[in-house]
Structure formats: C-alpha cells, structure tokens
Amino acid sequence: MERDSQLQLYQAVAARLKEAHTRVRELQVPEGVRMALSRKLLAVTAVAKHDLAGAARRLDRLMKDLDEGRFPEGD
C-alpha cells in the first residue's frame, strides 16, 4: 500500500512539474524573471529526488505564486 501511495504522489508531482514548466515557458515576462522561475522549478525537481512530499509542497507554493501573479525579480 505504501508503495502505491508513493507512486501516486510521484505521478502527481511529475504531472504538476510538467504543467508548471509549460506555464513558465508561456508567461509574458522579462527573460530574467523566466530564468528565476526556471531555477525554482529545477530546485523542486532536485528536492523530488530525495523528498517527494517536500517537493510537492514547494511546487504547490510555486503554482500558487504563478496563479496570483507573484513572480521573482529577474537578474
């Protein structure tokens, strides 16, 4: 059972990451902002390798920021 729930969480995080990458790619923002968002997505991906639940929480926060139009400042 534990393995099934872990697999479902993995699939959900993978689908959400794919959606997040698409949304970031399609944003009409300066390139620096897009790069900052891409770095955040890479960080979430890295966390997912050893803390899937933590990655899901980080991804939820990132998606909420995107929904609410809160973007990091570009370089």
UniProtKB/TrEMBL annotation:
- Put simply, this protein is called Uncharacterized protein
> Per the UniProt entry, what species is this protein from, by scientific name?
Streptomyces gobitricini
Give the source lineage, highest ranks first.
Bacteria, Bacillati, Actinomycetota, Actinomycetes, Kitasatosporales
